[in-house]
Amino acid sequence: MDLATAIQQHTETAPGRRTGLARFLAHCPVGDTFDLVPAHTIHFLQILIAQDAAPHTLHVYRSAVNAFFRWLLRRGLVAFDAPALRQAFVDQAALMPKDPPARMQAPAEDDVRHLIEAAYAALPSRPLDTRAGQREYLGYLRNIAIVETLRATGIRPGELVQLRLCDLDHANQVARAPDGRTLHFDLESWGALGRYLVARGDPVDCPLLVWQAPVFARHDPVCAGQGLLPMHRLWVASIIRKLRTAGGLTARSLRRRFGQRLLAATADERGTAGLLGLKRPENARPYRRQQ
């Protein structure tokens, strides 16, 4: 099977592994899954180490590639067997930093409140009766909606930029994530999203095109006149960095906050895993608050 196609199929159900597998694909010397060998995972890890990748990056990318190789093995898309892959995992461990990566911490509630306040306070500087001012105003409303959506739903940035208008269920104030799970908004986040979409004023004379338009679109001068173009997930991280007052607050830490609060309130690992888009209930356990 074509390696790029296999990665695409795998990341449809595991979008959090997309970045690590894209990096692996860029360095992999073969293009077919049946040409893969377990040593390719070790070679990839050695490349990352030679490039001075951060310990957290090493752990995340290693986990993504190993999960992908296990997925290929279960589907009979590789020529090696399970013992060979297990031995590669052992050999990888010898290369990894001895200290585990720092555990992701949920942001303090004051920091989250300050982030929201900063988003509302970042008012446009240009007059609204100019095109530049209109674009800036739409970007302002979009950024508020992004911050509120991250806070309220626990969505990943890569999933957020993939949302299309057809994914929104206005009657029930929910959305469908790329992996099919339901994203539940609260009043503040749904209201922020609604204000942004109303101000955007998508054309009503081409419903099929609008149906597939991104929920969160670009409003920078470069895309002027090109219609509604989707954002990149890295822009979401940039928006958070510009607005935050605490250095450790990121989209990922907002997702951890969502998971921690949900698990603490319900003690339901299966339900928490489902709302976070995790494949197995036990994957929700790291979201338990540390005493």
Could you describe the 3D structure shown?
This protein folds into 2 domains: 3-95; 109-286, Intergrase catalytic core (hpI Integrase, Chain A), CATH 1.10.443. It contains 13 helices and 3 strands. It has helices at 3-13, 18-27, 39-50, 55-74, 82-95, 109-121, 131-153, 157-160, 187-200, 207-211, 233-243, 251-266, 269-276; strands at 168-169, 174-176, 182-184. Strands 1-2-3 form a 3-stranded antiparallel sheet, with no helix packed on it. A hairpin with a 4-residue loop joins β1 and β2. α3 packs antiparallel against α4 and α7 runs antiparallel to α9. It is globular, with a radius of gyration of 21 Å. It starts with a helix and ends in a 15-residue tail after the last helix.
Supply database-style keywords.
single chain, 291 residues, mainly alpha, hpI Integrase, Chain A, 2 domains, 3-stranded antiparallel sheet, 13 helices, globular
Secondary structure tally: strands: 3
Tell me the number of helical segments per DSSP (H or I, 4 or more residues long).
13
* Integer average pLDDT: 90
Q: Give the total of domains.
A: 2
CATH topology value of the largest domain: hpI Integrase, Chain A
- Order of strands, widest sheet: 1-2-3
The helical percent reads 55-70%
CATH superfamily of the largest domain: Intergrase catalytic core
Q: Indicate the overall shape.
A: globular
Radius of gyration: 21 Å
CATH architecture title of the largest domain: Orthogonal Bundle
Portion in beta strands:
under 5%
Q: Can you summarize the main beta sheet? A: 3 strands, antiparallel
Query: What ranges have pLDDT less than 50 throughout 5 or more consecutive residues?
Result: none
Structural class: mainly alpha
CATH class of the largest domain: Mainly Alpha
Order of helices and strands: HHHHHHHHEEEHHHHH
The first-to-last residue Cα distance is: 47 Å
